[in-house]
Amino acid sequence: MIPSYAYAALAFSAFTSATLLPGTSEAAFALFVRRFPEYAYGALLCAGLANGLGSMVSYWMGRLLPSRKMPSEKTLNLMRRFGIWLLPFAWLPVIGDALPLAAGWLRLNPWTSGLMLIAGKMARYAFILWGMQYYAA
């Protein structure tokens, strides 16, 4: 049986990694799967949802930004051009943290934004899981 603190630690790492706080959720996910391989899909669900919820915190922070304090012009131009279709890439380094912030600032629909963010985060962890399973075989 898996200790509940392992899921809690994974969720905490994934959640904080998606906010402006530093984090290492990929490493925590990989360690979890290596230690508890039979719970790999539970870890995928836990990390993906927690990371997506962390991005939604950034989204809501963006909604609270006053109009004169906007995200970078480059990020805003990308969001204006591609809208919610850019949100699955919020896991990317450097620009990824700014995407949910800009989505909130632009007042994109919170439900579709959350769905796109979670889909992108789940896809990233699924790719990591696939890579671990592929190279372990």
Folded structure, characterized:
This protein starts with a helix and ends with a helix. With 137 residues, the chain is mainly α. It has six helices and no strands. It has helices at residues 4-18, 25-35, 40-64, 73-82, 98-105, 110-136. It is elongated, with a radius of gyration of 16 Å. The protein is 70% helix and 0% strand.
Q: The biggest beta sheet, please?
A: none
In which range does the helix fraction lie? over 70%
Question: From N to C, what is the helix and strand string?
Answer: HHHHHH
Percentage of β-strand residues: under 5%
- How would you state the average pLDDT, rounded? 89
What structural class do the secondary elements suggest? mainly alpha
Question: Key terms for this structure?
Answer:
mainly alpha; 6 helices
Quick take:
The chain has 137 residues and is mainly alpha-helical. The chain has helices at 4-18, 25-35, 40-64, 73-82, 98-105, 110-136.
